[in-house]
Amino acid sequence: MSFIGQLGSVRVRIIITCRRRADLCKNIYNYTTAIFREMVTLIVATSVDPASIGPAAALLSMPGWHPGPPLQEMSSFVNKEVRLLKHDKRIVLEDHLDKRWEEATGELVNEVIFLSRHVAVSNRPALTIHPIGIPHLREGDVPPAGGKPGWAAPPNPRLGPWLRLLKNIAQSHNLTPEFEITLEATHHGPITQSPTMFVEIGSTEEYWKRQDAAQAIALLVWEGLGLGGGTAIGDWSRNNGKNKVLLGLGGGHYVPRHMDVVLKDGVWVGHLISGYSLPMEDQSQLKGEESKQEVGGTWKEAIKVSFETTRDAFPGGQVLAHLDHKSFKSWQKVAIMGFLADQGIQIGKPADFC
Fold first, then answer.
1. Which SUPFAM superfamilies does the entry mention (predicted)?
2. How far is CA 228 from the centre of its chain?
3. Which of 1, 132, 149, 348 could form a disulfide with 320 if both were Cys (CB 3.0 to 4.6 A apart)?
4. Which of 250, 43, 310, 300 lies closest to 150, judged by CA?
5. pLDDT at 284 (0 to 100)
6. Is the distance from CB of 221 to CB of 113 less than 8 angstroms?
7. 120: closest CA among 12, 252, 28?
8. Cα(44)–Cα(148) distance, rounded to whole angstroms?
9. For 245, phi and psi rounded to 5 degrees?
C-alpha cells in the first residue's frame, strides 16, 4: 500500500474511533484532515513594480499555467503545486498573504517567494536573494518598509541552493559580470508566517525593466520549483544528510563573508543579520557603575528571534552561528560569543557547513 493509502486507512480508523469518543478526538480529526490539504508554494508579484511584474509575466509565459481562484481583488494562476498571486499594492505592505490564501482556498502554504525590485545607493545592477524580518526593532518603532518590530519570518530553505542556481543561470545568460549576484541581509516586510524569501532585480528603473533579467528570475523559479519536470532545488527534506545550517551574524548589507561560505555546494543558510541589525551600546562610553552593566541594545533579541525562526524553518537541522569576526570590535565579539554560549547556540567555522 502507498504512503497516502496508509494515511487514508489511519484516518478511517480515527474517524470510527472519534464517532465513539467525539469529545476526545476533535483535535486529532482536524490534524489528520490538514494532512490531506494540498501544500502549495505561493509566489507573489505586484503590478506597481516592473522588477516584480516583469519576471511574473515571463514565468506565466511558460507552459502549464491556468487561472486560479481570486483572493479578494487579486488574481491568481496555478501550475502544479505552485500558485502565483498578483496584486496592485506595495509588495512590502501586503501582510499575511499566506494565511489569507489558506483561509480562502483551504490549501496550506508551504513557502512564499516574493518577486521585487532592489534599490541600492551604488545603482549597480544586481540580482539578489534574501530572507525578511526586522528583529532588531523595538515595540513602538516605525518599520521603514513593512513588517513589525521584533519579528522575522522563517527563512526559506531554498535561499542557499537558489543563490547558487541563480549565479549559474546569470552566467549562462551573459548577465555577469554586468549584474552582481548576491545575498542580502535580513530586512523589511511584509509579515508572513511561512518560510519566505525575496528574489529581486536591482538597482534602478533601467534594470528593473530589463527583459533578460526578468527572464533569468523566471527561469530561477521555473527550474528551482521543478515546474519543467526536473527535480526541485533547495528541498530541505532531501538534504542528503547535510543538516548544518548557517545563521549569519555581522558584516554589511551584502554579507560578503557569509556569501563566501554559502556559494559552496551543499551549504544551507537561514537568517543573515548584518551589523546594523545588531545594535549594541558601547559600555566604554558609560561612567562608574553603569559601565559594569551588560551591553545594551536590541542585539540579543535580534539573535534570538533569527535563531529560533531559522531552527523552525529547518526541522531536524543544526543551526550554527557564523560570525563575520572582522566586522565586530573586540568588546562586541566578547558580548556576542558570551550570549551565544548562554543560549546554547554553537559557533561554526566555514568548513563546518560544507
1. AF0625-like
2. 23
3. 348
4. 300
5. 63
6. yes
7. 252
8. 19
9. -125, 130
Structure confidence by residue, pLDDT tens digits, 6-31: 334 333 333 333 433 444 444 443 44
CA distances to 143, 226, 335 from 246, in Å: 26, 25, 20
Looking up cell 515546474 gives 227
Residue carrying C-alpha cell 513593512: 146
Contact, 47 vs 53, CB < 8 A?
Answer: yes
Residue with cell 555577469: 176
CA 37 vs. chain centroid, Å, equals 23
Phi and psi angles of residue 24, each rounded to the nearest 5 degrees, phi first: -100, -10
Is the per-residue pLDDT at 339 higher than 50?
yes
Using CA atoms, how far residue 53 sits from 115, 175, 182, 263, 347, in Å, is 8, 20, 21, 28, 40
Structure confidence by residue, pLDDT tens digits, 286-338: 444 444 468 999 999 999 999 999 999 999 999 999 999 999 999 999 999 99
The rounded distance, in Å, linking the Cα atoms of 117 and 120 is 10
Distance CA 164, CA 162 (A): 5
Report the 3 state secondary structure along the chain.
CCHHHHHHHHHHHHHHHHHHCHHHHHHHHHHHHHHCCCEEEEEEEECCCHHHHHHHHHHHCCCCCEECCCECCEEEEEECCEEEEEECCCHHHCCCHHHHHHHHHCCEEEEEEEEEEEECCCCCCEEEEECCECCCCCCCCCCECECCCCCECCECCCHHHHHHHHHHHHHHCCCCCCCEEEECCCCCCCCCCCCEEEEEEEECHHHHCCHHHHHHHHHHHHHHCCCCCCCCCCCHHHCCCCCEEEEEECCCCCCHHHHHHHCCCCCEEEEEECHHHCCCCCHHHCCHHHHHCCCCCCHHHHHHHHHHHHHHHCCCCEEEEEECHHHCCHHHHHHHHHHHHHHCCCECCHHHHC
Cα of 119 vs its chain's centroid, Å:
19
pTM over 0.85: yes
Separation of alpha carbons 108 and 352, rounded Å: 34
Give the three cell numbers for residue 161: 541552493
Q: How far is it, in rounded angstroms, from Cα 279 to Cα 301?
A: 10
